[in-house]
Amino acid sequence: MNPTLISRRQLGLYALSAPGLVRAATPGVDAPPAPQPPRAVTLPAFHESTLRSGVTVVVVPRNNTPLVTAALLVRAGPESEPPGQAGVAAMTAALLTKGATRDGVKKGATAIARQAEALGATLDSGCSWRATTLSMTVTVPRLEEALALMADSLRRPLLGPDELERARAQALDAMRVSLGNPGEVARMAMRRVFWGDTPFGSVAPPKALKRIVRHQVLGFHARQLLPNRTVLVLAGDVSPEQGRELAQRYFGVWLPASEAALPAVLKPPEPIDAPLLLIDMPGSGQSSVLVSAPFAAEGDADRRIGQVASAVLGGGYSARLNQEVRIKRGLSYGAFSEAESQPTGGMFSARTQTHHPTAAQVLQLMRDEMQRLGDAPPAADELAARQATLVGSFARRLDTTSGLAMLVLGQKAQGRPLADLNRYVTDVLAVTPEQVREFARSHWQGKQLRAVIAGDLAVAGDSLKAVDAGAQRVSLADLDMERLGQRSKR
Amino acid sequence: MPLFLSGQLSRRGWLSLAATSATLPWATTPARAAAPARASPIRLPPLPLRERRLGNGLQVISLANQATASVSIQVWYRVGSKDDPAGRSGFAHLFEHLMFKRTQHMPNEMFDRLTEDVGGQNNAFTAEDMTVYQNEVPFNHLERLLWAEAERLVHLQVDQASFESERKVVVEELRERVLADPYGRLFNALPAQGFEVHPYRRPGIGNEADLNAATLADVQQFHTTYYRPDNAVLVVVGDFDPPQLDAWVDRYFAPLRAPQAAIPRVQAVEPPRAQDGRVALTAPNVPLPAVALLWKGPRASHADAAALRVASALLSNGDSSRLNEALVHDTQMAQAVGFSADLYAEAGLLGAYAIAANGQPLAKLEAALLAQIQRLAASGPDAAEMDKVRTQLLTSTLSARQTPQGLADAIGNAVLLLGEARMADETLQRLQAVSAADVQRVLKQHVLQTRRMTVEYTQAAA
Fold first, then answer.
1. Whose CA is closest to A332, among A351, A310, A311, A313?
2. Cα–Cα distance, B205 to A80 (Å, whole number)
3. Distance (Å, rounded) from C-alpha A484 to C-alpha A270?
4. Is A336 within 8 Å of B14 when comparing Cβ atoms?
5. Nearest CA in chain B to A240
6. A230 phi/psi in degrees, rounded to 5
7. 3-state SS record for chain B
8. Which of residues 161-190 of A touch B (CB under 8 A)?
């Protein structure tokens, strides 16, 4: 990123605003002073090895604070659920922290929570695409106890029937809250609208949660959460030797009792035909507007270009979507985008919330911006600014033990070498404006877009006529999330 | 899940904030991991803070730290939602949005050019007692941010179009936080129910009518009244050279002049609550009913503040806390519970809340919350629980201060709420020194022996 470009642009603006006179601005007086010389982003060393059990261990030493983040990743998530078992992966992950056998003795959820929190941390579990995770951040003297707890929770969880019922009731209650929030409703629906009835389109509405039975959870744990899919990351005040030794102690000998399940048949997206789905939520406080489009798959050569293109559109406060929706027109508190890459395809999503009568206008604005990026390349300084945003966000993650751990897990979840992290900054800065334009042109043309608006459609009224040609309309009460996106069999 | 908000409103919904009550900065001596059976104590030497006060009244606090390649530049103004003018609820927060607009030497949104566009970030928040502008940039951009913060302090030039556009954004923020969120109306109502006299009772986000009544003249007036060097604290943390920082501060901030006029301050004093109260609120989309119990609490600098924070942690920090274990796990009567001690500069609010699990009556939850508080007050926490809370507080402190922004937040809070930057060092010591008997005493004195307001929150009839 060339700082001179920024200064020159600002000088141009000052010249325009000075009444009747074109004069150069003075840095540090009527213009910002120039920056000092920069330094390159430096990454810590990543020490990677594999235990005989098949578990991969990564140690990232950083000793300016006496903290360590310990994180486990198992490469299995909702995409690996057997058909008809939507929600089992997340339920299994939730139950990992709710009881385990420790030194031959069964410890219930209460005891495990007390043990974890006595270490000053929470035992957090997570479930996302191709990732079941456990993590804790503790002070150095607690590291071994934390690892012992995490190992027992992953390898010997009780997955008890009482805790399953508790977790189910809590998940149903949480789902009640989510289904009252237009943003959450739109996101869940878009999963189906864009990916269709494929593994990456899996959603677990209340009726799916109610169907889950314990043997499915036991099955997922036994046949998916296996050592050769597991990565342990230790980031913080720990040496490579200490880290490896601790990993060996708790994960070195691990013989799974069951065979792995057959791998899921992953599929590319199967979007519904309708370009827009309108979901009526009478009485909702705002409308959520969501637009999705194809994105690079995991192995695509233009994946990095796509990430930069996504940043140009919606990767920050100053990116195009927020400029048009919030800054210029005051239509929303914020509009932004994100992108996911899966082995068989990807999904780019732009989203925002707005007052009901302006939802159609906002939808058109977001679609137009996606089209515009495919028509003309971004200016060099605009691209440089968005590249700097990506680089800066990456650099800030290096400041914390949890940020470092998540960077490593992110690579491992996608099966990428850690050495790529050392190339991240160079790769981002190498993307050109023309590459961005070509990516947008080939991925984000009108016919490829799918949209969801969830809000009070009666209040939106006639404003929706501008966008509802060919739209599907349904009330939330009548919407069957699981059937949405299913193609009728011929 | 912390549901009690101390009214903090940030400019950007999706960027995370440091909680006002949480984080404390600490320099550290790394402890080598020998995997001992018992934890050896971690020694935290005092932060090497440097403090200056300029002739115009500006306070400058800095902390050089080479563990990062960034620098955090923050300006804390001693004005918050408690200072919203009459009929202008939400004004301090609206004004905060406007500080990102044009100045004499900067176009609109210049702060984003100076931060985001070079790999940094910026944000701002309005709380009850302060408005804070936060910037984090690569170390080599420090001077530019110092220039820019001085520039908007003295040369802000908001025009009518920007004013109206940003007001619309604030109204959308109000709709997103208060109206779209199923529990937004509840949180918004708590200060109004908890305080009876003090302007802390007015919600920081304001209301649509007051926001729409505000004028550009109000903006000029507010800027002149509160945005002055003797009402501000500049905090700089990260990778910088101290003599160079001092020279830049002298160049950009020393020439600014403080007006002669006195700064208006809130005079109201919140009296003790005379009797218990109860109110029922409804909203269109409430998936699960909730109940909140509110007690008036002491100010942040009160001697009992540390014990109240420890009591809060014992009651609701983590799954093994008293309320979570009893109401969420064991009896399954609540979807979520919490206890918070929101202590501001002049007064505080203590609260216990529960969101009911499906079908559970609010009366049962209310009784259960009180029973747990009574139990903790009567027989006190055991040694393992006290150890746990001390460890949790230490770990969260260390975590938060890994970043320049986390350290700067802690310094700013210490100055604004406790009076001095060096209180950032002392606060963790005070927390660690709290005893089980202290916990019992403060729960009796500030909660069980005072009057309360109960707020019930349910779905409106169709």
1. A351
2. 44
3. 12
4. yes
5. B33
6. -105, 140
7. CCCCCCCCEECCCCCCCCCCCCCCCCCCCCCCCCCCCCCCCCCCCCCCCEEEECCCCCEEEEEECCCCCEEEEEEEECCCHHHCCCCCCCHHHHHHHHCCCCECCECCCHHHHHCHHHCCEEEEEECCCCEEEEEEEEHHHHHHHHHHHHHHHHHECCCHHHHHHHHHHHHHHHHHHHHHCCCHHHHHHHHHHHCCCCHHHCCCCCCHHHHHHCCHHHHHHHHHHHCCHHHEEEEEEECCCHHHHHHHHHHHCCCCCCCCCCCCCCCCCCCCCCCCEEEEEEECCCCCCEEEEEEEECCCCCCCHHHHHHHHHHHHCCCCCHHHHHHHHHCCCEEEEEEEEEECCCCEEEEEEEEECCCCCHHHHHHHHHHHHHHHHHHCCCHHHHHHHHHHHHHHHHHHCCCHHHHHHHHHHHHHHHCCCCHHHHHHHHHHHCCHHHHHHHHHHHHHCCCCEEEEEEECCC
8. 166, 169-170, 172-174, 176-177, 179-183
Beta carbons of A35 and B148 less than 8 Å apart: no
Structure token pair of residue B147:
């220039």
Backbone CA torsion sign across A311, A314, A315, A316: positive
Q: pLDDT band at A327, cuts 50/70/90?
A: confident
How far is Cα A248 from Cα A290, in angstroms, rounded to an integer?
A: 46
Which tokens go with B10? 């940030």
Check: CB of residue B239 under 8 Å from CB of residue B194.
no
Does the structure show a pLDDT above 60 at A20? no
Mean pLDDT of all residues in A305-320: 95
A396-408 pLDDT per residue, tens: 999 999 999 999 9
Q: Pick from B138, B167, B182: which is nearest to A180 by CB?
A: B182
Q: Encoding tokens for residue B31? A: 């402890």
Structure tokens at B157: 């030039």
Residue pair B22/B394 in contact (Cβ under 8 Å)? The answer is no
- pLDDT score of A489: 60
